[in-house]
């Protein structure tokens, strides 16, 4: 009796152990299949996630982590402070466009983004050339090493040597309108007046983009990098070949870019009357070399050598462009050179028979184009 009972109990226990083991094995197999996407592989629909998929996945996770840490911090002051969200490259991850809030502030953010992307359409009366903010601050101002707006948003007010005073964000944006967008040739005749809605909307956009970044943190990826100086220095004549090989396909041999059927630039102009003026940061060979090496040719960033970047930047900056607006405060081009151009640029030098920095007239530009590119002005 006893032995019979014991045997029965033993086999019940064994069955249970086998049962549990079986369940564990099935669970492990299932998890592995799921984890490594084996079913998808078997059905041939499996493909390695692309670098950009992995990047946006990492970005999404970083933002999610920030939201969770903020919630904990809200609930308890002893929770640890939220960390700045960073993605695969170690750079700050701005919030996704889809997360712009659905309220009045969000409306301002959206307007700011539209101004940034299509400046000529949405703030047209202050734009005197063929450019948009996003032509130089890429991926709607989100891209590291393309002077991203999230880094700018945590860096102002600041002292600037250029105008020797404390600059608010509004002052800084005014500077890019005045020089990079050549506002002197716009309908209004200058950058937006102080307190204009254009500034408020742009500032809302930048502030929203920096949500999660520490104030005054000099985040990596801010501004444009500068390639190290080379033994040969820079030379615009050497840069001509680099330009022909890497840039002309989009920006055209004559540097005037290309437009779509509606007359809007798809590839922006690099010199001449529709480009930025002689006061813009980009006309400095070192700044342009950094922008170009880090961002051009579009889709192949960081592919040019240091030497190529310096030379092609020099080539682009050796052409005429709209006058420095500060020229009107001085006696002459030479005085403007002395006062404002003691850095790496060609302002005041005569290249291809034209004194760089002289105001461009329709006639002088037409003659220049005819002589150098043998064609009608477009
Ligand atoms: C022709 C190219 C160009 C265009 C167009 C342009 N910018 Fe800039 N922007 C620059 C350069 C160059 C700098 C200086 C970056 C540096 O110092 O590394 C800069 C800097 C800035 C900064 C400060 C960045 C920082 O980290 O301190 C802000 C803000 C800014 N631009 C806003 C704008 C806005 C808004 C527009 C459009 C209205 C605009 N920019 C159009 C070239 C441009
Ligand atoms: C595949 C096309 C393409 C190639 C090739 C290319 N670019 Fe660009 N470039 C663009 C586009 C498009 C923009 C505007 C970026 C944006 O709005 O996202 C731009 C912007 C620029 C700008 C700032 C805006 C302006 O008009 O001043 C400069 C400077 C520039 N490119 C120089 C160069 C140089 C130099 C090369 C060659 C080393 C080059 N690019 C190659 C497409 C190209």
UniProtKB/TrEMBL annotation:
One Pfam family here: SoxA-TsdA_cyt-c
Organism: Marinobacter aromaticivorans
Entry-linked Gene3D superfamilies: Cytochrome c-like domain
Cytochrome c domain sequence ranges: 107-241, 234-320
Stored InterPro entries: Cyt_c-like_dom, Cyt_c-like_dom_sf, Cytochrome_c-type_DH
Biological classification of the source: Bacteria, Pseudomonadati, Pseudomonadota, Gammaproteobacteria, Pseudomonadales
SUPFAM superfamilies reported for this sequence: Cytochrome c
Residue ranges with Basic and acidic residues bias: 60-74
UniProt keyword Transmembrane, yes or no: yes
Coiled-coil residue spans: none
Parts of the chain that traverse the membrane: 12-34
Keyword Heme attached: yes
Keyword set, alphabetical order: Heme, Iron, Membrane, Metal-binding, Transmembrane, Transmembrane helix
Protein name: C-type cytochrome
Domain of life: Bacteria
Region span, Disordered: 60-90
């Amino acid at each position: 009796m006893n032995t019979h009972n014991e045997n029965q109990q033993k086999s019940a226990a064994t069955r249970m152990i086998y049962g549990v083991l079986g369940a564990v094995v099935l669970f492990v197999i299932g998890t592995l299949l799921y984890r490594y996407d084996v079913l998808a592989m078997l059905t041939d629909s499996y493909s390695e996630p692309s670098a950009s998929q992995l990047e946006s996945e990492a970005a999404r996770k970083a933002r999610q982590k920030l939201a969770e840490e903020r919630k904990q911090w809200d609930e308890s002051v002893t929770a640890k402070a939220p960390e700045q969200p960073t993605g695969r490259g170690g750079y700050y991850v701005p919030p996704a466009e889809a997360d712009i809030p659905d309220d009045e502030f969000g409306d301002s953010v959206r307007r700011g983004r539209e101004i940034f992307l299509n400046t000529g359409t949405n703030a047209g009366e202050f734009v005197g050339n063929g450019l948009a903010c996003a032509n130089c601050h890429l991926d709607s101002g989100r891209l590291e090493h393309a002077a991203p707006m999230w880094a700018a948003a945590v860096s102002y007010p600041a002292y600037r040597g250029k105008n020797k005073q404390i600059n608010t964000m509004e002052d800084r944006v005014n500077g890019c309108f005045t020089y990079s967008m050549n506002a002197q040739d716009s309908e209004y005749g200058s950058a937006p007046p102080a307190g204009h809605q254009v500034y408020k909307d742009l500032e809302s956009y930048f502030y929203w983009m920096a949500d999660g970044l520490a104030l005054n943190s000099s985040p990596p990826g801010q501004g444009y990098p500068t390639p190290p100086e080379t033994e040969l220095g820079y030379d615009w004549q050497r840069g001509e070949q680099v330009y022909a090989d890497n840039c002309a396909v989009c920006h055209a041999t004559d540097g005037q870019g290309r437009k779509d059927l509606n007359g809007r630039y798809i590839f922006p102009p690099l010199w001449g009357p529709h480009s930025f003026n002689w006061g813009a940061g980009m006309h400095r060979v070192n700044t342009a070399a950094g922008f170009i090496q880090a961002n051009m040719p579009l889709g192949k960033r960081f592919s040019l050598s240091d030497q190529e970047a310096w030379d092609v930047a020099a080539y682009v900056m050796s052409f005429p462009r709209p006058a420095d607006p500060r020229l009107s405060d001085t006696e002459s081009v030479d005085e403007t050179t002395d006062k404002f151009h003691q850095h790496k640029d060609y302002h005041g030098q005569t290249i291809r028979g034209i004194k760089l920095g002289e105001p461009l007239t329709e006639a002088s530009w037409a003659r220049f184009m005819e002589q150098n590119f043998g064609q009608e002005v477009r």
